Amino acid sequence: MVERQIRARGISAPAVLEALEAVPRHRFVPEALAARAYDDTPLPIGYDQTISQPYVVAYMTEAAALPADAKVLEIGTGSGYQAAVLAEIAGRVHSIEIVPELAERSRTLLADLGYDNVEVRTGDGYRGWPEEAPFDAIVVTAAPDHVPPALVEQLAVGARMVIPVGRFTQEILIVTKTADGAITEAVLPVRFVPMTGEAQGQRR
Fold it and tell me: What is the pTM of this model?
């Protein structure tokens, strides 16, 4: 998977490649789909949610440009796979999942796999996790139709947020916090499940 789908498509950060090699992706999909876990495709995980394709996980992780011992916020725990990849690199990962059943499943699985540097909270991630801010990176794995302002506020100066944005067509945006505001760059067309909860009521 890493050689054919990730390294061959331009992902080169050693820490990201090592993280993708280390995380047992088959543990994060339903048992019936375990044989397809390493395919270059998203897969359903229940509750109308998916596990992202390996390349997209690698791309977003590399784009986050995690510093050493980073504190990371993830919005949309889902299967827990992206959180595990981040946890291989970061010092601490705080992850929020709106679907209670997925939050509990991921919390249990990540603990079973030894990821004691991940904390999973059940709730709506639209307003982030302010009491743990600022974050050295934020990775969002569900798509709102705009960048949530609270998440930008919770970035440390110089830090990046990697987020898919759009209703009908989506792009990954890299939002970099500066002392004077934020700089946004669109980098990759994607298709993510929509961000639910408050994000839907705030549509623009």
Answer: 0.95
